[in-house]
Write a structure and sequence with these properties.
The protein is an alpha/beta fold. The protein folds into 2 domains: 128 residues, 3-Layer(aba) Sandwich (Rossmann fold); 181 residues, 3-Layer(aba) Sandwich (Rossmann fold). The chain contains 13 helices and 12 strands. It has a 7-stranded parallel β-sheet with strand order 8-7-6-9-10-11-12, sandwiched between helices. Strands 2-1-3-4-5 form a 5-stranded parallel β-sheet. The structure holds nicotinamide-adenine-dinucleotide. The site of nicotinamide-adenine-dinucleotide (NAD) has 32 residues, from helix 5 and helix 7. Nicotinamide-adenine-dinucleotide binds next to helix 5 and helix 7.
Length: 323
């Protein structure tokens, strides 16, 4: 193993790094390395480990003559050109489970904060105010939460909302059997429009793909109830942000909370930053110490396993690369 070399170009938790260093491989830990330097250095490494900051593009892979595996410490691989990696027989592995609870808990935090206008109320106190009458909120118990995408995070949010908050939960996911929803006491809905019409709050938990880009646009927002809340802790690009601002201003949507944006960092001039009915966080869904530890350990173990000649557990393109 000692002749193997791993480059880690985003910050990962110490526990994951320690595993790599104890794994008998050479580790170059260079979070934030400028792209031109990465282009120069990538050719010396067998493995690359990233979070979401490093963009693993085709031109980078063109220089990655030794690279055999890319590890993503997290779930979404949209910062990696997986097709180009596959074409070069480079395996991409991710850590799909480590973030689930963190992202689900952040969704619930945003739901409650939006329903009770916590951020705006806190900001008025910070600027010297004390306005109690402005902030009448919405109780969530007994209200309808519509979940779009019933995967790991969607079903965790559904479970907390139903069993913890005692909301009525609907779910729309054309790829998930209705029985998996019903087992958890969740009502399956096979039509997105029906879910949007019936929900007091709607939460997105789908990947960003060609099919899901602008899944929620002006037309879908029109179907939502005027007091309804929209939550996106999944991926920017799923929602037409400008249409959301228009719907809020027109009174046809009650509020929106976004952790992710079409452009990140969110541009300083974006109206989402200051809109009184919008709550924004800077892509914090996975940002707990616990989740960062889980994903770093998971991906480190998989990369080491692969370099030892074993099969990793979460190969995104495993089937194609093995062909
Ligand atoms: P997952 O793959 O477990 O679940 C996604 C679900 O979406 C699947 O069940 C799939 O069938 C469903 N789906 C796909 N297309 C759909 C469509 N058109 N309509 C309805 N359902 C559809 O993924 P996950 O781990 O639950 O992650 C969900 C999202 O959260 C991803 O976009 C991921 O990148 C994002 N995420 C964000 C953060 C953050 O920091 N904010 C952290 C972790 C994950």
């Amino acid at each position: 193993m000692t002749d193997h070399s791993i480059i880690v170009t985003d910050r990962i938790a110490d526990e994951g790094l320690a595993l790599l260093r104890d794994g008998g491989v050479h580790v170059e830990y260079v979070p934030g390395l400028p792209k031109d330097e990465l282009l120069e250095r990538i050719g010396y490494h067998d493995a690359l480990i990233v979070r979401s900051e490093t963009k693993v593009t085709r031109d980078l892979l063109d220089r990655a003559t030794r690279l055999r595996i890319i590890g993503r410490a997290g779930v979404g691989v949209d910062n990696i050109d997986v097709a180009s990696a596959t074409g070069r027989h480079i395996l991409v592995v991710n850590a799909p489970d480590g973030n689930t609870v963190a992202a689900a808990e952040h969704t619930i935090a945003l739901l409650l904060a939006l329903a009770r206008q916590v951020a705006v109320a806190a900001a008025t106190l910070a600027s010297g105010g004390w306005d109690r009458s402005r902030f009448l909120g919405m109780q969530v118990r007994g209200k309808v939460l519509g979940i779009i995408g019933f995967g790991r995070i969607g079903r965790t949010v559904a479970d907390i909302a139903r069993n913890g908050l005692r909301m009525d939960v609907l779910a729309y996911d054309p790829y998930c059997p209705a029985s998996a929803m019903e087992e958890l006491g969740i009502t399956p809905v096979d039509d997105l429009a029906a879910l949007l019409r019936a929900s007091d709050a709607v939460s997105l938990h789908v990947p960003l793909t060609a099919d899901t880009t602008t899944l929620i646009g002006a037309h879908e927002l029109q179907l939502m109830r005027p007091h309804a809340l929209l939550l996106n802790v999944a991926r920017g690009g799923l929602v037409d942000e400008e249409a959301v601002v228009r719907a809020l201003d027109a009174g046809s949507l009650g509020g929106a909370a976004f952790d992710v944006f079409a452009t990140e960092p969110l541009p300083p001039e974006s109206p989402l930053r200051t809109h009184p009915r919008v709550l924004v966080t800077p892509h914090l869904g996975a940002s707990t110490h616990d989740a960062q530890r889980f994903v770093a350990i998971d991906v480190a173990e998989q990369v080491l396993r692969f370099l030892r000649g074993e099969t990793p557990t979460s190969g995104v393109n495993l089937a194609e690369v093995q062909q």
